[in-house]
DNA sequence: GCCCATGCAAGAGCACTGCTCTCTTTTGTT
DNA sequence: AACAAAAGAGAGCAGTGCTCTTGCATGGGC
């Protein structure tokens, strides 16, 4: 696919990457709000207007960083999945959760970009939706493998309300996931709840509330696993 | 407490309130990043420098808005608590959760300010911690009343890890809450998970994933209730 | 090997921001 | 009425995103 074209095109790719790298550095150091196109350009020894040859505006640069970040968390989750391929479902589950949390704690500003407040007036462009779903799919994979191995129990609680049926059927179709419907609904809920847990820690809401963070996270993740029947 | 002093002091209070109101309007309309001191001043017919007599900088204005917003969600949660004083614990639980969600959906930008990415380089000042805990305390109240009525079952799952003990003991002391230790740990987890659920909806992560939002939320909240033994 | 078109960089400039400083006006108190 | 404290006005600084015009150089077709 990526045939080497002219030297011009190659230079363009390199400069684009350099811009993203420097932007990521500033993002990690100061946060999205402090990310300045002019500062990026300055650091790269170019004038600010030159940067607009590569990214039409600030939001597009941020979008590029967002996609990369989604891919980074997704990759972390998938790596945890692969590394624990032979383990018991609940161990795999917690491994994936831990991987996501570790990434979030290591990249708080990028985490905020993904799961904190969306950028003002910003509707997630098409390009972000696939990378954004990788973590969720990793969680689904754990449940699916467990189900295939007969190690998944039906989640407790009331039966699925009818209104949720069509959503859940769509999940099943999209994921080609051979999973019980209550489990699919539970996965969606637990997916978001995991980010509540992580977000509260990253954004400091557990400050002076929960101090034994590792133990608390593991304990809570085990509860999430139980919630989907793992 | 609020003795009426001079007319000057009264004017100051009124102008301060007007600034906050206008700032809140802009926050609701455009989001925190677009909130401009100059625009607020302009709208109020004063020059921007005059505004600095009331708020030393933008962050202080935001902090004031944050405190008000925490109080607003807290009040919504407490109102739901009061209105359902005679209901069953699980009904009260869901009522509180729904109240928080309703507030969040009605005030997405303020919600983002509270539970989204923290403002750059911003450490929550002392004044915010009490208002910030009101929602959590409302959830605790439901569990406490249920426990007093003997309607709380012990949460399922492994026993509390030792590392969590001191945190949980602190909860118990601070809350003067006569609750089993696993319940307290579960409450902390579920507290954050509730905001994962709500945050994903407010920030659009459920777009094209979960469409039957009301049913999904209720169903998921019931699972949260079960997680704390309600 | 030349030559032009294209791609890129530079710089000036616009409108905006947060914030500070100085100067003037208002206003409550003595 | 006089004074001091508080509030407002305005200019100004440094920074931002973004646009437009100008100049340069380099890569691909002849």
From TrEMBL, chains A, B:
PANTHER family hit by this protein: HTH-TYPE TRANSCRIPTIONAL REGULATOR RUTR, HTH-TYPE TRANSCRIPTIONAL REGULATOR RV1816
Key words of the record: DNA-binding, Transcription, Transcription regulation
UniProt DNA-binding region: 36-55
Domain HTH tetR-type: 13-73
Protein name per its UniProtKB record: TetR/AcrR family transcriptional regulator
Highest taxon of source: Bacteria
Family annotation (InterPro entries): Homeodomain-like_sf, HTH-type_TetR-like_transc_reg, HTH_TetR, MT1864/Rv1816-like_C, Tet_transcr_reg_TetR-rel_C_sf
Keyword Cytoplasm: no
Membrane-spanning ranges: none
Keyword Transmembrane: no
